[in-house]
């Protein structure tokens, strides 16, 4: 089976993990956590990084440090992983779904104006499948309405918007290092920011809100959202080869784009002129002209030994979030999208196997 993703693990990962074991520093104290925070934040062009136990805890912490709470509304795209919405609910706020732009598959800044109310306190753009959101109009709108911006960059390590890396474009950027993400520590996350006060507060709340000067003095209720030294060790090793990892992603995307360009009924992953996508999951849309429904295409690929994923189900269709809004673009993309195998271990031959299979089962085959 050609997997949809596989983690990038090398000898340096093994060495650093063994170093944790041999030194006994396996929990959240130890040199790798700070090192990983420093190298990853620098990679994002942000002065501060706060490592967390997951991308979800980074998102939750971001909303807490920005003071978002009950009675507040937070805008997000409906076409995202459920964690984005869950983090909003964890702080008691109300998620408000925004339509996506067919040219980016990300939040459509033009749709924000009609969703913003006097209760809106934050916007969470999601850089879906590695493509950045059109941030300038979004940031302008946020400024105009005095709302905060939290980037959900869980799928977009290293993506660039008009030359600037994602994560440091808004108030806070959140990343995930789950096993199938571009940089992975097994489980893990990070919050990056240019604001020292937000970083300090996140660091404090991450560790049970313990007073850094007085052990076991907890002036408020915090969380255990710490990353372990072992996780950070894996992250440090990956950051040493991040350029190779991203080059690999670009190579895979280029090959897919070339070999699928002429296949009737397939719409390929977008790349806006101002964007540098990292193609976390190289994805295509199965249109009517392909001659077969999306789910059937996935089943056919599976019988040929190719693992794929469907696009996320729009969150406004999930039981805890069900609402009467209709978001035709999000719904259409969700019904047609497929994530193709995209792991850094994918060979040229494997990509060719996938594209040949798609050609063979489509109308053009
Ligand atoms: C993976 C992901 C998350 C959650 O990250 P975890 O590390 O699994 O908690 C959040 N948002 C998006 C868009 C993701 O893809």
Which helices and strands appear, and what pairs or packs with what?
Elements: H1 11-23, H2 31-43, E1 48-52, H3 55-65, E2 73-77, H4 82-90, E3 94-98, H5 109-115, E4 120-123, H6 135-144, E5 148-152, E6 160-161, E7 164-165, E8 172-176, E9 189-193, H7 196-206, H8 229-239, H9 242-260, E10 266-268, E11 275-276, E12 283-286, H10 294-303, E13 309-310, H11 328-336, E14 337-339, H12 348-361
Helix pairs in contact: 1-8, 2-8, 3-4, 3-7, 5-6, 9-12
The site of pyridoxal-5'-phosphate has 14 residues, from helix 3 and helix 4.
Give keywords.
single chain; 365 residues; alpha/beta; Aspartate Aminotransferase, domain 2; 7-stranded mixed beta sheet; 4-stranded antiparallel beta sheet; 14% strand; binds pyridoxal-5'-phosphate
What would your notes on this structure say?
The protein is of the alpha/beta class. It has two domains: 11-98 and 105-239, Type I PLP-dependent aspartate aminotransferase-like (Major domain) (Aspartate Aminotransferase, domain 2); 242-361, Aspartate Aminotransferase, domain 1. It has twelve helices and 14 strands. The protein has helices at residues 11-23, 31-43, 55-65, 82-90, 109-115, 135-144, 196-206, 229-239, 242-260, 294-303, 328-336, 348-361, and strands at 48-52, 73-77, 94-98, 120-123, 148-152, 160-161, 164-165, 172-176, 189-193, 266-268, 275-276, 283-286, 309-310, 337-339. The protein has a seven-stranded mixed beta sheet with strand order 1-9-8-5-4-2-3, sandwiched between helices. It has a four-stranded antiparallel beta sheet with strand order 10-12-14-13. The mean pLDDT is 97. Pyridoxal-5'-phosphate binds next to α3 and α4.
